[in-house]
Amino acid sequence: MPRILDGKTVRDQIKAELKPRVAAFRESTGRAPGLVVVLVGNDPASEVYVASKTATADELGIYNETLTYPATTTTDELLAVIARLNERPEVDGILVQLPLPAHVDSQRVLLAVLPEKDVDGFHPCNIGAMVTGRPAPKPCTPAGIIELLKYYQIPVEGKHAVVVGRSDIVGKPMAALLLQQNATVTICHSKTRNLAEICRTADILVGAIGRPAFLKAEHIQPGAVVIDVGVNRVDDYGLAETIFPPERLANFAKKGYLLTGDVNPADIEKLASAYTPVPGGVGPLTIAMLMFNTVGAAERRIAQA
Ligand code: NDP
């Protein structure tokens, strides 16, 4: 039986380590670390994510505000919002909830956030700092995966890690962080030839594609550690039947959909030595790392003041 790498346990440890840091920050500065979330429009998924983020901030004693703007807000109006938040001394972290409405220039808005307040770790300055090993906020999902690998003492040094997916928020930073841990890293994407052959050489296989159960037995080396970043909603019962065992299909009738990762769960069970389940693996880590970045940003800003 493969080992299950449970993200909730790691999330709880990250949060437990943050609590005394928040208390110490409050003690030395007389205020809590501060996070402001900027939410534009009424995307229901974004509203759910923001509610989870603010609930976690509350739980940890991190001061937080959510600024909500209508979907008609312009790029210039958002740039003015960011400029004001950059100026506010008690705001340590600014998070612009993505996606922004299509008419907004997301790149310009994200670039306007001061790098030291960019708790998503998306600013090119912070990406540069990450790649060159300097202290800075790192993109939350891949940084959480590194914490998970450390927690479960999964050896990374000298291992061949294959990252499937090259997005700016998951695949590329994941590859950079694994490289920093001395893995030998291969990045694959939609134009990669012989994907299965390359994946089968992975000691650590990271699926970050966004396609339900796309990576299968032919992609998994027996004994590999499989990190499944994908979160895919399967609402076609026919497709669900090809992915899930009968006991999980029972839930389909209740919810009308099931969540699956990018790697076929039955094939993981058969072949992997350890894996992150979906849900409950990588997902819980992202918000915990956002809080980690917020507290780190607050500490660095005070240290540099
Ligand atoms: P993107 O859509 O931005 O990137 C997907 C990547 O997968 C691209 O680089 C793309 O290649 C590659 N890809 C697509 N199809 C194939 C294929 N057939 N073969 C090989 N590579 C392929 O997705 P994200 O990185 O934002 O997210 C990936 C997944 O992770 C999604 O399911 C998302 O929901 C999930 N996610 C989960 C998080 C969590 O907290 N658990 C957080 C963030 C994301 P190319 O560049 O060539 O187009």
Description of the molecule:
With 305 residues, the chain is an alpha/beta fold. It has 2 domains: 86 residues, Leucine Dehydrogenase, chain A, domain 1 (Rossmann fold); 144 residues, NAD(P)-binding Rossmann-like Domain (Rossmann fold), CATH 3.40.50.720. It has 12 helices and 11 strands. The strands form 3 sheets. Strands 1-11-8-7-5-6 form a 6-stranded parallel sheet. A 3-stranded parallel sheet has the order 3-2-4, with helices on both faces. A two-stranded antiparallel sheet has the order 9-10. α2 packs across α12 and α6 crosses α12. It is globular, with a radius of gyration of 20 Å. NADPH dihydro-nicotinamide-adenine-dinucleotide phosphate binds next to α12. The site of NADPH dihydro-nicotinamide-adenine-dinucleotide phosphate has 25 residues, from α12.
List keywords for this structure.
11 strands, alpha/beta, Rossmann fold, 305 residues, three-stranded parallel beta sheet, 46% helix, 12 helices, binds NADPH dihydro-nicotinamide-adenine-dinucleotide phosphate, globular
Number of helices: 12
Q: Helical proportion? A: 40-55%
Q: What fold name stands as the CATH topology of the largest domain?
A: Rossmann fold
Total strands: the figure is 11
